[in-house]
Please model this.
Amino acid sequence: MTEFTPLLSFLGGTLIGLATVALMAVHGRIAGINGIVSGFLTTQFRQDWAWRAAFLGGMIVSPLVMLGLTGQLPEISVPSSPVLLLVGGFLTGIGTTYGSGCTSGHGVCGMSRLSARSIVATLTFMATAVVTVFLTRHVFGG
Model:
């Protein structure tokens, strides 16, 4: 069972919101991880590369900041096999390609702009998640 952490969740959501607004205000770009990573891998050393590297670097370094502040790394538990993780990652990559973005781009940025495409995409993500959890926990016994 997932631990209920309203304060940490609120602070994390606030930081995500602030980062999203800052990226839009400073660079006019949407904070969708799929687009940031693909642009990072394809832009090389153009002007767009530096902010993408900083954004991704912040995601990688943030657990170390937490270690410095609290004395412990965030606990990560993955209750799935490596094969299922690979299959899930592959399917997610296909979905973000065909869906023109990921959950962060559509769910956080697109919905806040009242984008109809993002609202439909987010409803699709959420419905798929509900069905997947139901099947894996109650039908297949995972």
Helices lie at 6-27, 33-43, 47-70, 82-98, 103-112, 116-139. The longest helix spans residues 47-70. Residues 78-142 form one domain.
